[in-house]
Amino acid sequence: MINIFKGKIEKKDVSVEQLDMNNIPNHIAIIMDGNGRWAKERNLPRSMGHKAGVETVRIILKEAARLGVRNLTLYTFSTENWGRPTEEISTLMKLINTYLKSELKEINESNVKLNILGDMSRLPKECGDALNNAIEVTKNNKRINLNLALNYGGRDEIVRATKLIARDIKNNKIKEEDINEDTIEKYLYTNGIPDPDLIIRPSGEQRISNFLLWQCAYSEFWYSNINWPDFKETDLRKAIADYQGRDRRFGKVK
């Protein structure tokens, strides 16, 4: 376990007792940003930042499950990330593979169900095989859904859904006049998964970066200057506490 922690962590904590346990977000999505910055601050290669980020995944998954979050979606690798250096991409794929092999037993015993959002066909075979095995092993688990957005892009997802709908209209499986929001949602990677209540982005950036574009229509957003490897249980609780203070009206008036 990497233990090089430095500086942007706020001291003030939010305890579980301070949270309204009847108002825990059903679905939290996280843009895991800041691995590279974390490494740069420590004069380490970017690969070390990604390795430290994996440790944070372990921590946040456990805390989310403990708090009663039912769906946790992690933006793991976007369709645009293929433009990164080959060595970095290779490191990320190996880390996914290593994580699944080392953590699958605990994930399964913790009643976590793994889902993949995105096009797995472009992933390296070893990584794809490990993912498919983990999906099969955990398919009946019910405590929390861990959704990894891999080779995922919001625009790509909508284009894919449009093509599938057009194909089914052509094959007389659906009628054009019957298409509504519910129809479109059935063709998205997130079919069967509720829209995120809360989207968290660490690292100081404040943009959506092509993540869950359809699904985030009424999500609450929470930003933090903390880089992902420094993101801890207390930061998740702070985000949830802030969420619990929001007035969610979904375009309506109470």
What name goes with the CATH superfamily?
Decaprenyl diphosphate synthase-like
| Domains, number | 1
Q: What is the global morphology?
A: globular
Order of helices and strands: EHHEHEHEHHEEH
Residues in helix, %: 40-55%
Helix/strand-derived category reads alpha/beta
Strand content: 5-15%
> Can you identify the CATH class?
Alpha Beta
Spatial strand sequence of the major β-sheet: 3-4-2-1-5-6
**DSSP helical segment count:** 7
- The CATH architecture is 3-Layer(aba) Sandwich
N- and C-termini, Cα separation: 48 Å
Q: How would you sum up the major sheet?
A: 6 strands, parallel
Q: What's the Cα radius of gyration?
A: 19 Å
Mean pLDDT: 93
CATH topology description? Undecaprenyl pyrophosphate synthetase
Low-pLDDT runs of 5+ residues are 1-11
Work out the number of β strands: 6
Task: Briefly characterize the structure.
By secondary structure, this protein is α/β, with parallel strands linked by helices. Helices cover 40% and strands 14% of the residues. The chain has a 6-stranded parallel beta sheet, sandwiched between helices.
Question: How would you describe the overall organization of this protein?
Answer:
The chain is globular. Residues 1-11 have low confidence and may be disordered. With 254 residues, the protein is an alpha/beta fold. 40% of the residues lie in helices and 14% in strands. It has seven helices and six strands, in the order E-H-H-E-H-E-H-E-H-H-E-E-H. The longest helix has 24 residues, at 86-109. One of its GO terms (cellular component) is cytosol. It holds the Pfam family Prenyltransf. The active site is at 33, 81 (proton acceptor). Keywords: Magnesium, Metal-binding, Transferase.
